[in-house]
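Q: Given only this backbone (113 positions), what sequence would you predict?
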């Protein structure tokens, strides 16, 4: 397993963050892929494409792909990381990458069921 999942590359279009309190990334709550995001597996990891915003992000290892694809199956992000084999001590780079994805609306908070 690589030491660090690649953080998706993206441009910030606007400094304004409406609803920032509602969408602020918290790894202790549930998250999921936005319904308008498609995941395309690639040999290096995956491409994420958001059909609403037209943003493209790269996931550069398969572990982060597994975490992203399984987020909806876990009560919180940390549990999803553990489920993908990432120990608590190694979660920091994954949490950072997931926070970047949340800031770009690739990930959204999961509604309570």
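A: Predicted residues:
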């Amino acid at each position: 397993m690589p030491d660090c999942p690649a953080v998706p590359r993206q441009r910030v279009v606007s400094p304004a963050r409406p609803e920032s309190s509602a969408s602020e990334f918290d790894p202790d709550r549930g998250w999921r892929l936005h319904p308008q995001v498609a995941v395309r597996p690639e040999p290096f990891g995956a491409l994420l494409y958001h059909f609403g915003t037209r943003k493209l992000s790269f996931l550069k290892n398969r572990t982060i792909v597994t975490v992203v694809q399984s987020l909806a199956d876990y009560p919180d992000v940390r549990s999803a990381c553990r489920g993908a084999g990432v120990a608590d001590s190694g979660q920091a780079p994954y949490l950072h990458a997931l926070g970047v994805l949340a800031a770009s609306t690739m990930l959204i908070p999961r509604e309570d069921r």
